[in-house]
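Dissemination and training. As part of the outreach component of the grant, students in the summer workshop were shown how a complex can be specified as a set of sequence lines and then modelled as a single object. The example used during the hands-on session is reproduced here so that future cohorts can follow it. Participants entered these lines:
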Amino acid sequence: MTNDKLQKKKLYAISSENRQFGFTLPLKHTIRIGKRDYDVKLKADEKLGTYILWKNRKYPVEIVRSRQNRYEILFNDISYTFTVETPFSLQRMKVLNAQKGKATTEYIKAPMPGKIIDVLVREGGVVQRGEPIVILEAMKMQNEILSPVNGTIVKISAKPNTNVMKDDLLVEIKP
Amino acid sequence: MKIKRILIANRGEIAVRIMKTAHLMNIETVAVKTAVEPNAMYLSSADIIFDNTEDTSEIPVFLDIEKLIAIALKSGANAVHPGYGFLAENAYFAQKCIDNNIIFIGPSPDAIYKMGNKTIARNLALQNGIPMAMGSQGNIANEEEAIAIAEKIGYPVIIKAASGGGGRGMRIVRKKDEMEKMFVIASKEAEKSFNDPSVFVEKYIENPKHIEFQILGDTKGNVIHLGERECSIQRKHQKLLEEAPSGALDAKLRKKMGTMAIQIAKAVNYYSAGTVEFLLDSDKNFYFMEMNTRIQVEHPVTEVITGIDLIEQQIRIANGEALKFKQEDIKLTGWAIECRINAEDVQAGFAPDPGKIESLSMPTDSYVRVDTGIQRGSSIVASYDSMIAKLIVKGKDRKEALKHTKMALDKVWIKGTKTTLPFFRMLVRHPKFQNGSFTTAFIEKDLEKYYFNAEYEEMLAAWLAVKLFVEENLSDDSISIDYKHGKEMNPWLLNKRISQF
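and obtained this result:
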């Protein structure tokens, strides 16, 4: 990445739910709400670690993951995932998304290490968003892995009574 | 005092909690150091640490009866406190302690056994005229029998494991053609979880409140209750928040339910602390569910409103002392709410999120009590439960307790794992929680979103993402930092980076 990106004067953070937050460059340490600018400060101290100071309140922040232009940020105990785009890459992303349509496969991965108790779907079956697809036992709790989309089960990799590691592929769903 | 030295057959916050009271009573404590948590906080509360780190057994020591007895004998402990979970409700363990002249701080093995077996407990309740959901007389053999009973008492019904607990081996059946499948699932789950496939059927109470009574009994036959706890905020039968008292009870109903709770306890000659659980339906009918023969996770809310230290009472009762107070001496004052702050990812359906606690800061206001076994640097390990801390908040009434809870939640600061904090921040703002009309179906039926965030919070997170991107990609003098490893990033380097912003 080179400094010519700076000339674009603006960056966008796009949330996983496709909400768009635009910021002009150079990045200011204020955020405008309504007609007022409020100071935002990123700080750290020995006791609390990293935090954001906003309207006289400290909010804990953590960078959970960062890959290229993708960031997962834990802000006040809630996780947000963004991709940071320049006006140019944002435009390209929109074009690519339009070409791909919505039919990208969802890869359901194990959110934690554990044991597969049951697989509740079969290949070729149809699932609704929020429907349990796999039961994973971890830390003495049975956890239902829910489908994030409406779609068709393309492939099942999870087998009952087997152990899985975090991020192991369980099920592929075609929306 | 006969009890001189107590082996704590447990870990985590409850081990810390028990040792705190033991110290106040000038009783020595022994804690067991394990390879899984060699630096755990509870070890620093103990007078004597028994090193069991060389133990390579697959079974946690806290479940190993023979080993615990040996540790008690070797360390010179003449009493054992089992805490909750692990062997707390194991009649064989209690008997083994007695056989080795070790005082078991809990009820008699006979009471543990009878209340642990749901079929026996049901029959005891029946004989004592305790209201109960209609159901089968004893265990049922097959789905035909289950269907016959369901037709008689009407659907929906619930199949429960006779030796069950904690929500496992339970299945709700709403119509006849679901029975065969559910019967097999419940029975299998019961066998897997409790080594006993026997199940029974009872009428399923729709949308009840979970109300439980705290019982104290001594070995002289005195039994009293310390009021109720409301534990309806639960997910998959796991309690998340408890309060005392319950807004659903008035003095008359409290007396009626409390009397029934004492009666069922007396039916097994109960001594020590125990809890009688009821379901309360929307018409204020109540039904006996089960009795827990141990100290419970949520015991602090009762301690707050009664001023009685339940662990102290358990120790005194085990020591053979008579209760110092009668039923009429028990006064419920104020309101208490407990939030179970667990290492769970609320956004991922409460999936456990084990990890190392990088920083931890708790409110120190006078209206807050924190029970925890976790400190900075502690790990939430996958082999145990996901509890980080219990945040117990008091107020003069429910309204004030709620206000205090809301304030306290914003002062809890935990880094390193995701926590259930965003859930509680949502809960205290929910009208149905505020007005007290919630039932055990609340989380499943009334919630669209499991967490709370203010509108601007996402924008601030977006600002941080852009900030990091600018730093990484557009800075001329960038220090090379491996951001790809996210959390494992050297905090010193991160701080250096931040100071440059």
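Residues 87-100 of chain A form the longest helix (14 residues). Students were then asked to discuss how this feature might be tested experimentally.
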